[in-house]
Amino acid sequence: MSFSNLGLCKEILRAIKEEGYTTPTPIQSKSIPVILSKKDVLAAAQTGTGKTAGFTLPLLQRLKDSNFKDKKTQVRALILTPTRELAAQVAQSVETYGKYLPFKSAVIFGGVGINPQKALLKKGVDIIIATPGRLLDLISQDSLDLSKIEFLVLDEADRMLDMGFINDIKKILAILPKQRQNLLFSATFSNEIKKLADGLLKSPVLVEVSKANSASFKVEQVVHHVDKDRKKELLLHLVNKNSWQQVLVFTRTKHGANKLSEALVKDKITSAAIHGNKSQGARTKALDDFKNGKVRVLVATDIAARGIDIEQLPHVVNFELPNVAEDYVHRIGRTGRAGNNGIAISLVCVDEHEYLFGIEKLIKQKIKKVEINGFKVNPNIKAEPIGNRSNRGNKVNNSNQNKKVKPKDENSSSNTKPRRFASKNRRTNISSKNI
Q1: What spans are recorded as compositionally biased (Low complexity) (predicted)?
Q2: How many CB atoms lie within 10 A of CB 398?
């Protein structure tokens, strides 16, 4: 099947051709016709499957086909994402494939100045890509009218719920007109996601290219058991012995990301850290340096890594296992993208055995265990509790079950100094012929 068989107009097909793409991915082949048929969609799509184009292409086509009679440019499509990076990535897709269409778009998120965003919206836009917090800021300041919305997309909905955005999402939904097309994309299907979908979607079509809550079969998964105080030593051993030139490493906390990155630099490994306390400029520079090969090891927290799209990223390392099993699926989805192979390695100490059990239960498979010579685990070390266990997702500890989760502030405008707003983001290097 080619893109020309999917019901897309010549303007969109021209943009696709200029990008060098010929064949739609499975998620695109399944989702585009359904979205064009005006039905609500519930899509189980891993990152790296081409899901972004899977909804941006038909969304642009639907806008073109829609009989919108108001001559004044008004917001007709709203795409919500959990993080700035993902918002910028989606905005780039809209801009790239809509360049021959008369639509204006804006990407809206926190961490940058709000006044330039107000000025941009005042000129009129058709499509908004936004994080929930900043969107509500603009609505509360009467800088945004969503009364003409025809299309709503929730991208990585599971991550938005993980971050505590459910109340923000409900506030936004209450503002929108009832007659609209709704598209919900999620890599994992928790009970919370199903509940959200039940209240949002009307007779949705389920689009699924891989089983929900599963890891990509293109990703080789390995566990190395290691003592906690030797994790850094083992990571250095793996990077140097295997001559890894590009590896994404996950830590559980922002402080841990900084500490590990600084330690790697001291050991002559070029490294940078990205997390919510970094300014948007610093995060963008670190990511660009990683893509361009100036940085070998990028250390990231779960939230900051959303939107990282490096098509041929060969290695992902879980320096620490995530508190929530679903996050493991998102993490390793950074490799093995667009049909490429990848390796996901987890460094697991005795404290994390409970987390590992939860992950294997979620993905319904045992992960291969490989012992590294010289790093034999000390059997006398006893497990200690890990702090800050979460009460979301696939819980491995129910002691905090009744505690209220506050939304994380990675996208708020208060945790970084205002900076000049830029509506464009640097392009991701793409070599495959699948979007």
Answers
A1: 387-402
A2: 9
